Amino acid sequence: MSESLLIDKYGRQLSYLRLSVTDRCNFRCYYCMPEEGMNFAARQELLSFEELYQLSALFCSMGVNKIRITGGEPFVRAGIIPFLRKLSQIPGLEEITVTSNGTLNQKQIKALQEIGIRKINISLDSLDRERFFKITRRDSFDSVFASIFSLMESGFDIKLNCVVAENKNIQDIVPFVELTKDRPIAVRFLEEMPFNGSSTFGTPQWSHREIYQHITNHYPTLEKLQSEASSTSVNYKVPGYAGSFGIIPSFSRTFCGTCNRIRLGATGELRTCLYGPPATNLRDVIRSGNTTEQVAQEILEAVSRREKDGFAAEASHGTAIHESMSVLGG
Questions:
Q1: 32 annotated among ligand-binding-site residues
Q2: 253 assigned binding-site residue
Q3: Is 263 annotated as a binding residue?
Q4: What is the domain count for the chain?
Q5: Is 68 assigned to a binding site?
Q6: Per the annotation, does 140 bind a ligand?
Q7: What is catalyzed by this enzyme (predicted)?
Q8: What is the rounded distance in angstroms from the CA atom of residue 212 to the CA atom of residue 328?
Q9: What residues are paired with 263 via a beta bridge?
Q10: Domain that holds residue 79
Q11: Is 257 annotated as a binding residue?
Q12: pLDDT tens-digit profile of 126-181?
């Protein structure tokens, strides 16, 4: 098949695939899913690792050069390491990154090193054990924190993703910035998003503006960093600090004009925007016996219908109830 670039009608080239390998997670973070009552996909509904590989290779042949592995929690799916090893051999794939809740073991960390994966985002919403428990509904703070330091000591490029919310973790914002003082670590503060599997969500009290103002109240002098054009975060550092921090307007969606992402869910749902409905289901397409060329055409048609921004995509959704982030893949 001849190479085709994934370019939407607004001229944005999609070169970054967020690939969810499972909807399951060993945490129950309040902003992602309810504590009980989640209907996880049956094994046969998930894309097999072979199907995930075939689709990833196809996306790379169409211009994708970066894949982020997401979930759920990727490392709860048996067979993830052999899959990552195979994925790393796809021609044209320049970078594989992973998003995890930090519950990796030493064997998995060593395997990631051997594969050549060096960039890992860890979802960590508090530096306090009690608040961590209230947010995740799991008593795993010590093991997660130990894993983060083990990753740093092993030479990984670590980003910590913190979802900011009133009455949850505001008192953690400054300690997170302080964490960057002596460590070459990047912290990303995110606006809360409406992906908790219910209709109970209003406008976040802490937008990117409030987060920035809170930080500048404690650090009046900040250095703004140069970011890639497609970056979702506006990045800063405190002068003299080893690391950096960024703020992601994930609800305000000010970065949509340069977004280069496309998402494939663990059950095959292809989304051209996190806030929009599935454009198609590639699991069904490939299991119906379609050729590689036909699957590619389905992808191209989905990209051609991509909305201008997250607000337009949300308006096309037709429902006030947003799915769990573990289903969407982040």
A1: yes
A2: no
A3: yes
A4: 1
A5: yes
A6: no
A7: GTP + AH2 + S-adenosyl-L-methionine = (8S)-3',8-cyclo-7,8-dihydroguanosine 5'-triphosphate + 5'-deoxyadenosine + L-methionine + A + H(+)
A8: 28
A9: 18, 271
A10: 16-328
A11: no
A12: 999 999 999 999 999 999 999 999 999 999 999 999 999 999 999 999 999 999 99
Backbone angles phi, psi at 299, to 5 degrees: -65, -45
25 is in an annotated binding site: yes
- Is 259 annotated in a binding site? The answer is yes
Whether 67 has a binding-site annotation, put simply, is no
> How many whole angstroms separate alpha carbon 322 and alpha carbon 288?
28
C-alpha span between 186 and 236 (Å, rounded): 10
Q: Is 33 annotated as a binding residue?
A: no
Q: Is the pTM of this model over 0.90?
A: yes
For residue 6, is it within any domain? no
Q: What is the CATH number of the domain that holds 118?
A: 3.20.20.70
The reply to whether 99 sits in an annotated binding site is yes
Tokens of 236: 């800063």
For residue 191, being part of any structural domain is answered with yes
